[in-house]
User: What shape does this take?
Amino acid sequence: MSKPHRIRPIEPAHIAALIELGRETNLSPWAAHDYLSELKDKNSIMLRLETDENRTIGFIVGRLITCADAVAVDAEIYNIAVSPEHQQEGNGQMLFDEFLRHCRERDVRRIWLEVRVSNEQAIAFYVRNSFAVQQLRKDLYRAPAEDGFLMSRTL
Ligand SMILES: CC(C)(COP(=O)(O)OP(=O)(O)OC[C@H]1O[C@@H](n2cnc3c(N)ncnc32)[C@H](O)[C@@H]1OP(=O)(O)O)[C@@H](O)C(=O)NCCC(=O)NCCS
Assistant: This one.
């Protein structure tokens, strides 16, 4: 039986694999410098899922955001992806649960994200994880142009 996958922090050496995964899963493209600047931010939460052969098969990138009252903390998810051949096996859930654990440790009050309205697979995943649509954002995306949903859940 194969060993379970492990969650590890993202480091600069993994960025090429993240860009490739993003391409395979049609994520809005992030360049290497986007990941690098996120890595320098102490409020970032950047996790990868690796096989027992150290191959990256999924990742989640988000950040803690201090709210206007300077006390409450929210979080945003910018990217989550699992390589197509490893989807529908609980890997996205594993990444999200670990992200949630980091959020709980930091007393996060609410998590936000945006998603293309046509991305039924991701929307179903978020709804199963207690997210609800808060707003329709017209023409949020480019290439191809599309509306987006702003979704959130409380903790
Ligand atoms: C959204 C995404 C990250 C979910 O990842 P995933 O690994 O497929 O998610 P999971 O396997 O944890 O859950 C997906 C389904 O598999 C099912 N599942 C969970 N564990 C399972 C297992 N061990 N065996 C079989 N199925 C399982 C879940 O019940 C769930 O079913 P449902 O959504 O039909 O109710 C993935 O679809 C993805 O990478 N999409 C492309 C990138 C993307 O669009 N990202 C979001 C941008 S906003």
Observations:
- The longest strand covers residues 56-66.
